[in-house]
Amino acid sequence: MRPLPPSPSRPFACALFGLALGSAAAVSACGPSPTYNWPAESALGYKVGPGDILKINVWKHDELSQQVTVRPDGAFSLPLLGDVPGNGRTVTEITADIQAKLKQFFQEQPPANVQVSEVHSYRIYVVGEVQRGGEFTPSGEVTVLHGLALAGGFTRFANPARIVIVRRDARGERRIPFDFDAVVEKGELQQNLALQSGDTVIVP
Predict the structure, then answer these.
(1) Domain boundaries, the chain
(2) How far is residue 13's CA from residue 91's CA, in Å, rounded to a whole number?
(3) Which residues form a coiled coil (predicted)?
(4) How far is residue 94 CA from its own chain's centroid?
(5) Is the CATH number of domain 53-118 3.30.1950.10?
(6) Residue 101 and residue 85: Cα distance in Å, rounded?
(7) End-to-end Cα spacing for the chain
(8) How far is CA 130 from CA 3, 18, 24, 67, 183, in A?
């Protein structure tokens, strides 16, 4: 696997921008990575999908404590509680839903816990100036750096400072900036997000 070194073409590209567009434009095009609220993205957590296997534990209720698979329609079933939506939700959201359903049947609501036992729905995409672009299906969440490593690293034409993650979820579609040099050389690890299923990493 080819390593992920900082791109030697970045200074040269910035020099070209300076000649073609003027110094002010060059600063805009090649200056520091843009400000973005990366912590808000990292706090979202893993979203469950069809095929994922969940481990449900309801305290002192073995009949409700079991391992379930999220069906293609995005839900799973539990005795007494019926169907519980799972697709596109975090384990925190699923747990809260189960807790709400338990209130209907128990005076003293037993605590519930949900864990992702096996991941089968997770898919990410890495495209552009990488060695092996395409779809990847890791067995668990990976970060942007891990995703780039799965794609074999950059080609000689890549501009690692202008990587973008395209994300579509309930909040809509957005483009999240990722500056490889800033993460690796300056330690700006807040940019190294855990990729959500369906994220596309674009390397220009």
Answers:
(1) 9-44+121-203, 53-118
(2) 44
(3) none
(4) 19
(5) yes
(6) 12
(7) 20
(8) 11, 26, 30, 39, 18
| Cα 126 to Cα 164: distance, rounded to the nearest angstrom | 10
Please name the helix (run of DSSP H) or strand (run of DSSP E) that holds residue 66, with its range, or none: strand 66-69
How does the average pLDDT of the chain come out, rounded?
A: 85
DSSP reduced 3-state for 173: strand
Pick among 3.10.560.10, 3.20.20.70, 3.40.50.150, 3.40.50.920: CATH of 9-44+121-203: 3.10.560.10
Helices (H), the chain: 9-21, 23-30, 38-42, 91-102, 144-150, 180-186
Specify the pTM: 0.76
Residue with the two structure tokens 């080609």: 155
Q: What is the pLDDT of residues 42-85, one digit of tens each?
A: 887 899 999 999 999 999 899 899 999 999 999 999 999 999 99
Instruction: Render pLDDT for 152-161 as a digit per residue (tens, 0 to 9).
Output: 999 999 999 9
